[in-house]
Amino acid sequence: MNAQPGEKRHHDRKFDKGQMENFTPEQRAELQVKKLTLALDLSDKQQTEIKAFLTEKGKEREKAMAEFKANRDAGKKLTPDDRFAMKNRMLDEKIAMKAFMKKTLDARQLAQLEMMKTHQREKITKREKNFKKDSRR
After folding, report:
1. What secondary structure letter does DSSP report for 74?
2. Where does the record place the region Disordered (predicted)?
3. How do residues 90-134 score in pLDDT, each as one tens digit?
4. Rounded distance, CA 87 to CA 77, Å?
């Protein structure tokens, strides 16, 4: 029997996501910049600026995740104030990313990036709906 066309891709996606956790922030940033370069035709200057920004944010995120995991492993539960602070920080990071991209990319690239993000959100929503439907069986 042959596997369905979508099955292998799903497995590869899981593998890629798991492997990204093992990369350093610099390695993750480099891969992200290369993907963006292919999609948006970034200039060398844009690549350098975006890589530096993503590396810095990746290091901050890694530090925050290590702190979160340490608290979780210690059995500490998030208080409502902690949860609010975490969500607030995440939104601040998204705002900073959007502002940086507006400053770095031209109008065409920015529109393309927004389209890519919208498409990605749609794929995630569809996958979540399919997962919920499959888990009810």
Report:
1. T
2. 1-27, 117-137
3. 999 999 999 999 999 999 999 999 999 999 999 999 988 888 777
4. 15
Dihedral sign, Cα of residue 86, residue 53, residue 15, residue 3: positive
Give the burial class of 40: count Cβ atoms within 10 A of its Cβ; 0-12 exposed, 13-18 middle, 19 or more buried: buried
User: What does the block give as tokens for 32?
Assistant: 């992200």
Kindly state the tokens that stand for 39. Answer: 């999609």
Q: What residue ranges in the chain does DSSP mark as E strands? A: none
How many whole angstroms separate alpha carbon 6 and alpha carbon 115?
23
Phi-psi region of 41 (alpha: psi -120 to 50; beta: other; left: phi over 0): left
CA dist., res. 29 & res. 100, Å (int): 15
Q: How far is CA 34 from CA 46, 70, 74, 114, 132, in A?
A: 11, 32, 38, 17, 33
d(CA 90, CA 98): 12
The candidate with the shortest Cα–Cα distance to 97, out of 86, 110, 79, is 110
List, for residues 62-86, the tens digit of each pLDDT value: 999 999 899 889 998 889 999 999 9
Domain boundaries, the chain: 26-106
